[in-house]
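Two entries, shown back to back:
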Amino acid sequence: VQLQASGGGLVQAGASLRLSCGASGRTFSRYVLGWFRQAPGKEREFVAAIRWSGGTTVYADSMKGRFTVSRDNAKNTAYLQMNSLEPEDTAVYYCAAGVPILTATMDPNMYTYWGQGTLVTVSS
């Protein structure tokens, strides 16, 4: 299983970015696709997740309203639309796939496959 995250870059505060996560290697209908981020000196943080089959979504409270996760089954690609970006959103963003139990969707340890990360830098 391979995950390829892309779409990061340098933007100003208030801007938007859309990250993509291309998946290959197996059928993902059982999987949850999660987005995590890690800022320098901080622990990896859950951002959002989407169940590949059915499209159920989960968000970290601090991301609700600004970030939207979606997926395109035909393209085996998931997306993270990020609006109203703030300098505090600066981090390496990772996509991951796994089969977490419902109550552990936000736990990175529940995810088996990880992409390489894409850097998002938000300037003030």
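entry 2 starts here
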Amino acid sequence: QVQLVESGGGLVQTGGSLRLSCAASGRTLSDYAMAWFRQAPEKEREFVAAISRSGGRTLYAEPVKGRFTISRDNAENVVYLQMSSLKPEDTAVYYCAQRKAEYGSRWYYEYDYWGQGTQVTVSS
């Protein structure tokens, strides 16, 4: 059974940092491209960042470029999202997603498995 479990969310002040983790089980992580999406209240789910199977190629949404870094440790079956210089508009539930492909994608419908999400709240 495929399972993705996010952790690391919480409350942080503007300008602060958080590191999210996504622990994968049930399948070999290196077979999948991975991504982070987020969804704020009353808004659609939006793409944040994606990483290729090997970790050699990454993709970022414009609002987070230069502030967020996606990485992965295939040996440990974990994907990370390092978030810095956080802003109130980054407040959302952050979801980890998995796609059986070489590279990540911006489109949520191209992902096969999703975690339950972790809440990130940035106070002003």
